[in-house]
Amino acid sequence: MKETAELWKKYNISSELLKQRLGRTSNLLGEYAEYLVSEYLKGELLTASNASADIQTPNGDFYQVKSRKISSNLTTQLSIIRSWNFDYLAVILFNKKGSVIKGLICSKSISEKYGTYNEHQNGWVISTTNSFLNDKTHIDITNQLRELNNEKPIELEKSLPSSNSIRKSDKTEYSTFNQKEREIDKVDRKLPKWFKNPDFICSRILIIFLELEKKYGSVKYDLLADYCSGMKTFKSNFAQMKNFGEKNHGKVFEQNGSIITLWNPIKEKVILEFDKHYELIKTHYITVGNNVDKLRNYQ
């Protein structure tokens, strides 16, 4: 009895300390999962009352986080999704001891395909079936989360029970084909948000480029860098808009030598969205037509 009582006291002390450290609600599993994902994304935790998203990243993306603690079978139901007003779904599965055994980032469009509407709960439920866990469009962040959780990395293809194992050919690697499709999908979703929020750094870089292209016909890197000189993080943000990557802003640029162009697969979409929101952009920057110098001075 004495040992059981001591365990009970230690449990309550630890729970209270963790609650104070996370500083949010008493749902410690969910709060800790959101904490891990926010650390990985270097994002901002939103208020606990936000129904649609839990985290916002510096580039404006919204993430909803779902987590479960499981025993042996990885197939479980995630908690209800009441709104799809976010960009990505992050899923973490813990074992009984709190170790991360699976971490995924899933695009909203793919997540919706796995959601089943539950009329009683007035929302959508996703089950972590084999097909969901092994979907090649997901980004596997298991080892990144394990590192944040002070754990050693694991071989992903050996980390699941045999019935749920992932063949090497099925791992969520950023293959050339999936890479291109993901980037197109990512940019397609982000463009309206960028042009509706012209103060985002990625928005400003893209708008300045488009104005320079209208004015000069072609844009060299040094010219773009000069007009973006007021942005301390121009180089790193431009790189995230030029290169492929799991956590980039979205590939919109190509660079051939010193010449910058729009990436061809999304070129028409960029121009379409830019024209659609141009009146808002023009008003926001107090710029008229090709007078990109005023936009430069806005910085």
Describe the overall structure:
With 299 residues, the chain is of the alpha+beta class. The protein folds into 2 domains: 2-173, PvuII Endonuclease, Chain A (3-Layer(aba) Sandwich); 177-297, no CATH class. Helix content is 44%, strand content 15%. The protein has helices spanning 2-22, 28-41, 108-114, 130-133, 142-148, 176-196, 201-216, 221-227, 234-242, 264-276, 278-285, 292-297, and strands at 44-45, 55-56, 62-69, 88-94, 100-107, 116-118, 123-125, 139-140, 219-220, 253-256, 259-262. The chain has a 6-stranded mixed β-sheet with strand order 1-2-3-4-5-8. A 3-stranded antiparallel β-sheet has the order 9-11-10. A hairpin with a 2-residue loop joins β10 and β11 (259-262). α1 (2-22) crosses α2. The longest helix is centred in the first third of the chain and has 21 residues, at 2-22. Mean pLDDT is 81; it is low at 156-177.
